[in-house]
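User: Show me sequence and structure for the first protein, then do the same for the second.

Assistant: Starting with the first protein.
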Amino acid sequence: MKMTSMDIEGLKLVDLEEVAQVERLKQFLQEQGVEKPEFMTSGHMNLSWQGEFQGREVVCQFGPNLSTYQLSLSEIKSYGYFNPGKYEKAQLICQATLEAGIPCPSILKAGYAGTLSRSWCIAEKAEGEDLDKIWKQLPRSTKLSLGHQIGGKIANIHSINPDVYGQNPISPQAWYRGWFKQVFANLSALGIYQPQELEKIKESIVPQFLAENMPPFLTTIHGDILQKNIFVKKDPKEYKVSSIIDWETAGLGNPWADVILAAWWISDEYGGDNKLYEAVIGGYNEVISGGALALSLNRSRTMRPYIDLWWYLNILWVRPLMGDFSQVERRRKMVEKVMEEL
């Protein structure tokens, strides 16, 4: 059933091993104190359940089964999706997020279950409506208002001190060099690109990006701000952002990449709504208030192809690591398209 529901995306998300674990996962949640656990959905990376915990509705998540993946790839455990401690880190970031006045569901319990080879968490249910489900029906004026709000929330996230989750400071250039090393090694190990192809990308794109497009410093970022991770409420006449979810890949990163990707996704990417893109960037700058992280529209548009390129290169190895090579050809073509822009 789960595979059939996702066929439209061409993704093999679930195999027999996953189905066989359903009862084990249910039992594990009951052992943690979750009552009436019920399977919800299989996402691109995680399995989601719902239930009750200490008298409140909760959403429970399990990360990928790490025993089935090629953990010999370069520093794989450091990467968000496959990090055994990803929900424990997300718990710390969510607590700091709430203290900063940014709405998000509290993560009540989190850990890594060695017997299941999965990270897991129990979180409060998000308040409001899933923006992804109502986005297409919203009038353009409401979308513009929400875009502006979302930009401001991203700026608030960037104000969170990385010390609260034990992240050591590092220069943007050093961070990207480490990131490139990891991603390129994984792409090569999985056979997505030949070494000479990766060398061409490094030589033609990386030096210019590092020289001209670095933020003044790194900050806490969310890393995946788009409609499906935002909940809203109508209060009383207009929609307000009521909750931001999916903090598993949050951490130290490039604040400009964070807001540029959000603006790009929310404005429908290629051929999207320029005014909506500008609304997100404008909302961000309004909260940043002209400081070192202020991002002009011109700079955001100059950086956007680079950020888009890095996103595609990253996702190109993540899916195949899970055994899904169905999107490799399409995404390689997207990399070629973006490189032509540059």
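Switching to the second protein now.
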Amino acid sequence: MRYVVTGAAGFIGSHLAEALSARGHDVAGVDAFTDYYDVALKEENAQGLDVRRLDLAEDELDLDGVDGVFHLAGQPGVRSFGDVFDLYVRQNLVASRRVFERAARAGVRTVFASSSSVYGDAERYPTPEDTEPRPISPYGVTKLGCEQLARAYANGFDLDVVTLRYFTVYGPRQRPDMALARIVDALARGASFELSGDGSQSRAFTYVADAVEATIDAMERAPAGATYNVGGGVEATMREAIETLERMSGRSLELTERPAAKGDVRRTAPDTNRIERELGWRATTSLEDGLNAQWEWAATRVAAS
């Protein structure tokens, strides 16, 4: 098959492009290489991949001869209040609208990467897909808006689209602004770490290889219009994740507590019954194994620097 992966130089996108290529598919990656974090890291992610620089909010996406689009590109991060929101509108809503419109015209199946942030502080846990979305960050608002755009193009222009709501994906190459990436980097360098909140906030951590497997399954087998939670089988607090990393690294992390970040939810816990039942997918990587892989990757990079 010939696939396009948007955001192919990013964390999940680069892992997805590699996995698809390893399965023998023809993969064309596109990425805007924005400066949300160090562009050199994105260029490193893209090594060995066919990734073209493309600004989806302006440039035309070529889908001739393409069998499917994995739309992972977007402006990430819940710290999205203030004037920066205009950029989130452009990179998420405007860019996604153009991707959906082009895919609908070309008759190309699209898998859209959304986020657990659309739920906000959910009304119940574990949280099923039919829970009313109530995002508490501008980022979450734009991701929900993208979901609604996808639905509008499905209804109006027969877009074949599947939506995935990722829950705290981690692993090697994780975005450097994310908490686990900053924790393992601080441990590897012997630096201190600023912890937002008291550390009791919990997450359903999802290892990147599991998320990639769910994403490919969705392209290959999901019914049009489906929405799935993609979340790890283990929920842990930030304190528990830090203790696990300290134990496996044999190091102690100096912590400085800061107020909780605006837009950061207290808990995420997905109900994954739907994706397990319909696609047969379940996260299989334990938190211990996943954190160990991320620690070893980070420690090797620091030692080589």
